[in-house]
Amino acid sequence: MDTVVIGGGIGGLATAAFLQQRGIQAHVYEQAPALQPVGAGIVLAPNAVRLLRQLGVVEALQDRAVRARIGWEFHRWEDGRILLAQDMTQCEQLYGEAAWLVHRADLVDVLLKAVDPSTIHLDHRCVGHEQSAHKVSVRFANAATTESDLLVAADGIHSSIRHSLVGQVPARDSGLCAWRAMIPSDRLPERYASPTQTLWLGPGRHLVHYPVSAGRTVNVVAFTPAAPGKTVESWTAAGKPEDFRAEFAGWAPMVGELLNEVTQVGRWAVLDRSPVSQYVYGRVALLGDAAHPMLPFFAQGAGQAIEDAAALAETVDAACSPTQGLVAYERARVPRTARVQEASHGRATVNHLPDGPEQEARDQAFADQDPLKHSDWLYSYDAQAEAREAVRSL
What we know:
Elements: E1 2-6, H1 10-21, E2 25-29, E3 41-44, H2 46-54, H3 58-62, E4 66-67, E5 70-76, E6 82-87, H4 91-95, E7 100-103, H5 104-112, E8 120-121, E9 126-131, E10 136-140, E11 145-148, E12 150-153, H6 160-166, E13 172-184, E14 196-202, E15 205-212, E16 217-225, E17 238-239, H7 241-247, H8 253-259, E18 265-272, E19 280-281, E20 284-286, H9 301-318, H10 322-351, H11 357-368, H12 376-379, H13 383-393
Parallel strand pairs: 1-2, 1-12, 2-8, 5-14, 12-20
Antiparallel strand pairs: 3-7, 4-7, 5-6, 9-10, 10-11, 13-16, 13-18, 14-15, 15-16, 17-18, 19-20
């Protein structure tokens, strides 16, 4: 059995790595001429780190990442008062792994170490595919073609394969835009290097910052009301640092101090998409953002792609046939990813409450809960065990 994976991002590389680890031939085709460091910081929670350890890449990742001491530390926008702090020092005892704050480029680089380099093909943009009862053939813009038993579409939120199968998935304007910036740590006071995922909550907007790249850089991401007509959805869309600072004028001094060091910032629209209930079409499977694009408020986009990859390799390896493996993959992943999508969707409303009774009730709820156990459903999940159960259920 062999597999073609379209997309050389986190989901695509993880899929190839898990398949190859099981002796299943897998080739990755990436449209870009090079795997460049696109993107910024991401959070890897224990549910994803446990899977990465199986690939043997956690040690390499630790050299480039920051171990999270506080997973979420919510602050009030006006005075910096701490509303909730999620102590992550218990993670290894409860969930078997710590959580890590990582630059996306560093994660891609360590995943590459788990994939046979001869199976990665750059400058191959997929332009079409056809499947028969026994094979899937794929065409590329450079006139190359290939054939395999399975095709995995890990080509992101604008997946051409998904579009060819189900048409354009309607996107709704969420009314929000995202801002991303990276600041060298040596330009900031030492407190910004704290291994903490710090989140500032305020009316209509929020801002997150945490260190990545072994503490050398501070990642900043924020969400604010979108300007009318701003609907570009791209990590490479640029904004103006002065506009970014203006969005958080009047917030606590620590926020202003941080944003004063921003010299370049990305700005793009946040579009909302409804979950889909079908990830598999014969010998073709959707994975990661191509299957379940989600709002970025729960820090699980990369984690869910890694779970997808591990689950797919498990079902394909354990099932009686490749297509049965894909059916089991869909059965295992749709409920899980839909739940994470729903949680991410709800977080936007909770984070942006205006000051008043609802905001006060939210803050009190934060104070009353056990913040780490509150995430137990997320961090304790075993994607491979669920995948094996899905195969047995068939």
